[in-house]
TrEMBL record:
Gene3D superfamilies documented for this protein: Vaccinia Virus protein VP39
Keyword vocabulary terms for this entry: Methyltransferase, Transferase
Lineage, opening ranks: Bacteria, Pseudomonadati, Pseudomonadota, Betaproteobacteria, Burkholderiales
GO function term, MF aspect, one: methyltransferase activity
Record protein name field: SAM-dependent methyltransferase
Amino acid sequence: MTHQANQEQSALWNGRSGNAWIDNRVAIDRMFAPLARFLIDRVRETARRVPSGRLLDVGCGTGGATLAIAGALGERWQCTGVDISAPMIATARSRAAHARVPIEFLSADVQTHDFPAGQFDLVVSRLGVMFFDDPVAAFDNLRTAAKPGAWLHALAWRSPAENPFMTTAERAAVQLLPALPPREPGAPGQFGFAQRERVEAILTAGGWEDVALTPVQFECAFARADLRDYVSRLGPVGQALAGLSPPERERVADVVVQAFTPFIEGDEVRFTAACWHLAARAPA
C-alpha cells in the first residue's frame, strides 16, 4: 500500500463497500459489460497504431474490466490495474491467476502513488476516476505516469437526473432512512464528474491536452435474482442499511426492491447508463 490522501474513500472501499463489490462482482461485471466493450474498442484503436505497450486501468476494482481488456489486447501488451481497495485488488489478483492472465495489480492511491514516469501508452477507467479528494493532483499524477502522446479513455457517470436507476433506492428509502446523506454536487463519489465544464477544467489543469467529453449511453442488465443483494449492500442505501437491525433492514429492503419494478423485464433488471466518455492526450 502507498500513502493515501483520500482517507474517507480508503475507509469506504477497504471496508464494507469493498466487500459488497467483491460479493457482487459477477452481477456488477455483467451489468457494466457494455462499458468494458466500449473501452475495448477505444484501446484497440490505439493498439492498431502501437502494436505493443503498457496500459493502466484506474479504479479497477475486482479486475473484471482489466481482464476483458487484457484479453482483447493480447500478450504483446502489459496491463496494470490499480485501486485504493486492498480487498478488491486481492480478488483481482486471484481472478487473474485463475484465468492465467499476467496482469499486475497495485493496491495504491492513484492521487499519490509514485508511478515510474512515462510508463504507460494508455490509461483507461471504467467508472473509477470520480473519487479523488484532489482530482487535479490525481490527473496530473496520471499524466506524469503516461508516455508523451499517450491517450486517456475513461467513463464517468453523468448527472443523477440522467440516471434514474442509480437513484431509485435513495428516493424509495428517503422517508424510511431520514439520516440518509444527500448527494453533494461535485463531491468525490459516483456523480462527482457529472458537470462537463468542471471535468474539462480538471483534465486541463492536470496537464492533459485534446480534452473531449462526449455523452454516451449503455443498455445494461443483470439477473433479477441479484437485485435484492445489490440494493441492500451497495450505494448510500446499502451503507445505511448496514446499521439497522435485521428485521428493520429487511423491511426497508422490501420497500426499496419494490421501487425497481419499472426496471424489471422477466428474469432481468434492465436500465440505461448515461455516462461521459472522457478522452484526452498527454503532451507529446
